[in-house]
Design goal:
There is one protein chain. This protein is of the alpha/beta class. The protein has two domains: about 240 residues, TIM Barrel (Alpha-Beta Barrel), CATH 3.20.20.210; about 80 residues, no CATH class. About 50% of the residues lie in helices and about 10% in strands. The protein has 14 helices and nine strands. The protein starts with a helix and ends in a 21-residue tail after the last helix.
């Protein structure tokens, strides 16, 4: 089973036959570990067409190397580029790797948590101009589906929708406001992506439990993060969702950043056991991404646990492992 076949099996709510699929939303240590900074839009500014294409070729080579080293099931990293450059890079990756890995895109037309200085204005806007706000979201859906079509044609098969909705204490919008302003738009976008033949993953950090049912009802194929720093227990999420939604997560990023190796080990085992390697519909990932500041050694510990215990039917040492506690209670 290839890495791509493995994650496809998980997205179909089945159990892959080998090692549990794995992906990271972002991997930001390429300069330190691979000697090259991942190409972003600003790197292409002022470059000739030939020079820009050379950078994109090097970028494609880089992400294939990352996927090979860490045994990813899908390749991320191209979303930092403008749309045309993303499409070109996806084509280059496909030329180099064939169908070994699933290729990804990042799009989301829904309202996320606004920057702190805009929070009050945003809520007032939604309250006082509700129909205008909804129409703005519907226009964003149409625009981003156009981008999705171009990315699909370039090779992307799965869309990560990364608007954040929640703090560690719960969603920014109340469940009733979320149902009015976000869920219908998310559902429309998911339906549109499915019509394009693409898979969908809804990412959000924070405590999703008050809106979990709405996320599932949107029809998304998967949910990413399952944030343990907000006290979200992947075991409880699995209990509530069954195998109807694939879960991506949820190794605690705070442990990865702090290089707390025993806690990384425990968090990875808990995610594997209750995410559910054995029942399928599961993809191992950190609870956010491998960002700058995470020691590579921490990520290696997580991956080693995957190699040892990431197979269906594997007996995992679970004695003493407890559900996650919110950051303020640790």
């Amino acid at each position: 089973m290839t890495p791509r076949e493995s994650i496809l099996t998980a997205l179909r709510h089945e159990t892959p036959s080998g090692l549990v699929p794995h992906i990271e939303l972002e991997y930001q240590l390429t300069a330190e570990e691979f000697g090259m900074e991942a190409v972003r839009g600003h790197h292409l500014e002022g470059k000739s067409a030939a020079a820009a294409d050379d950078l994109l070729k090097r970028n494609a080579d880089l992400w294939v190397r990352v996927a090979e080293r860490f045994r990813w099931s899908a390749i991320t990293g191209t979303h930092w580029l403008p749309l045309d450059a993303q499409c070109r890079c996806l084509e280059l990756i496909r030329e180099r790797a064939g169908d070994t890995y699933m290729l990804t895109a990042f799009l989301d037309p829904t309202y996320s948590i606004p920057a702190g200085e805009h929070m009050m204005d945003h809520v007032i806007y939604l309250t006082d101009h509700a129909e205008e706000a909804k129409e703005q979201s519907r226009q964003a859906v149409a625009s981003q589906l156009g981008a999705a079509r171009a990315l699909r044609d370039a090779g992307a098969e799965i869309v990560f929708m990364c608007a954040d909705y929640c703090f560690n204490t719960g969603p920014f919008l109340s469940p009733s406001m979320f149902a009015e302003f976000v869920t219908p738009i998310l559902t429309e976008f998911v339906d549109g992506l499915h019509e394009l033949g693409m898979w969908t993953v809804k990412h959000t950090d924070g405590d999703i439990m008050p809106i979990l049912d709405q996320l599932v009802a949107s029809g998304t194929d998967a949910i990413h993060s399952i944030d343990p720093m907000a006290g979200v227990d992947i075991r409880e999420v699995r209990r509530r969702c069954g195998s109807d939604v694939t879960l991506f997560g949820n190794v605690d990023c705070s442990y990865l950043q702090e290089a707390r190796e025993e806690l990384i080990r425990e968090s990875t085992l808990y995610a594997l056991e209750y995410g559910g390697v054995d029942r399928g519909s599961y993809v191992l990932a950190s609870s956010n991404c491998i960002f700058r500041g995470v020691p590579q050694r921490s990520y290696d510990v997580m991956l080693q646990i995957r190699e040892e215990y990431g197979y269906p039917g594997c007996r995992r040492p679970m004695d003493g492992l407890e559900p996650p506690k919110p950051m303020g209670q640790r």
